[in-house]
Amino acid sequence: MILIFLLIFSLCFAEEIDLYSDKTLFENNTFTFSQNVNVLWENNTFSSKKAKLEYPLLEMSEDLCFILEDSKIYSDRALINLEKKTGTLFSENLIHVKEETLDLFCKKAELEKDKITLTNQVLLKFSQGEITSDKIEVFSFETSKKIKGCFKGVLGKNLETTFDYDGFLVYDKETQNLSTEDSPFFLEDKNFNVFADKATFYLKKGKGLDKVILNSIEKPVEILSGKINALADTITYLPKEKTYILKSTTNNRVLILKDQDQLSAKEIHIIKQDGTPEIKAKGVCHFTFSKEETNRFKNLVTHRSHAKTIRD
Question: Whole-prediction pTM value?
Answer without folding.
Answer: 0.84
